[in-house]
Amino acid sequence: MNSKATIPETLSILKIGLDFQTGVYASFAIVLYLYLKHRKNASRLPLPPGPKKLPLVGNLLDMPKSYEWLTFQKWAQELGSDIIHLNMAGTSIVVLDSEEAANDLLEKRSSLYSSRARMPMVNELMGWSFNLGSMPYGDSWREHRRCITREFHPNAAARFQPHVHKATHGLLRRLLDEHDDVLDSLRQMAGETIMSVAYGLDVQEKEDPYILAAQRGTGPLTAAAVPGAFLVDALPILKYVPEWMPFAGFQRKAKEWRKCADTMLNLPYDAAMRNIKAGEYTPSFLSYSLENIDEKGDAAHQNFVIKNTAGSMFIAGSDTTVSAIGTCILGLLSNPEAFKKAREEIDRVIGTERLPNFKDEESLPYITAVMKEGLRWRVVGPISQTIPITHKLFAKYHYQVSHIILKLKMSIEATGSLRVRS
């Protein structure tokens, strides 16, 4: 038997050895970092109550994979506190579970708590830094916000009502023909509305490439934005770990998901720009914004802001629209008396010869109340965006500047019962 290894075999053995050594050193460095971070965060002043924490990792292993707001609410009830504290491998999370706590911190001190927490996985690795909803407060955020409010203030937003009418009528036809696929019909309507309003694009009835690209882009975002979903959010230094490392699966996922985000951002924008340059386009947020570009300013940068803002619209309006309308349907089906009153009001005001439109809103107070109650009854976004803490003392508790805040909107805005008042 030949005991001599070939050169490729020798190199392979050396690589395995180096990978193992690198993994050991990296693991040791992570443990040391967690220990030092834990000691740095130690304080003589009390923290808010929270579930029992393990050494170093804290509550990282306690975090649910879905419906996390229900777990937060359960912990708050068990601890008898409207403010609870979680430790995610050294990064603290403060959860607010009452209107009083939220108002004291987020309304009365809004100048201190108007930003967004750093999310390395989402913004830095997955490429979602363009999203207005996750931008930190500052000049860039203000610039993007001006861009969207200029085209969507109440008077200007009326220009987009024909887009909504068209998508809504399409939804009603689909519900008549395919009444078993209500959620799919709602998703199609939401996607059609956003693509039309944002870019002036017409979409296909099924398997539309723009809607599919947007869904593939936002799907991973929903999972990655959950606090504690990825260790790199608690240990930002991990973003520098090479993707070939044994425990760097998050890097490989981020690389794949970044491609989805890029496609979502660029595919509809490029198509809309081709239509605009050809002079064959439907007026939209994009076309109106391009008309308002300041010729004395940096045109390329203004285009960049417009593109980012348009790209943020699907994540802001797709699932929220589906959830809001779906909740109203559920509420009406579970409350026949409210359904009967709503139908009677439409028949009395509109008749049976046409469908309601925006001009009828003031004449339909009960329908308006039903929609508002649906938003309150089952909150579309049960948890607020993560907010970084910049002040150290509140409500007799001590916080570190590295803490972030989550507001449980479900607890604050909903009681679990359906109430409709005309």
UniProtKB/TrEMBL annotation:
- InterPro entries in UniProt: Cyt_P450, Cyt_P450_E_grp-I, Cyt_P450_sf, Cytochrome_P450_fung
Question: Coiled coil: which residue ranges?
Answer: none
Cofactor(s) demanded: heme
GO molecular-function annotation terms? heme binding; iron ion binding; monooxygenase activity; oxidoreductase activity, acting on paired donors, with incorporation or reduction of molecular oxygen
Q: Which Gene3D superfamilies does the entry link to?
A: Cytochrome P450 (1.10.630.10)
Instruction: Write out the entry's keywords from A to Z.
Output: Heme, Iron, Membrane, Metal-binding, Monooxygenase, Oxidoreductase, Transmembrane, Transmembrane helix
Q: Which positions, given as ranges, span the membrane?
A: 20-36
Q: In which pathway does it act?
A: Secondary metabolite biosynthesis
Among Pfam families, the record links this protein to: p450
Similarity section? Belongs to the cytochrome P450 family.
| Name recorded for this polypeptide | Cytochrome P450
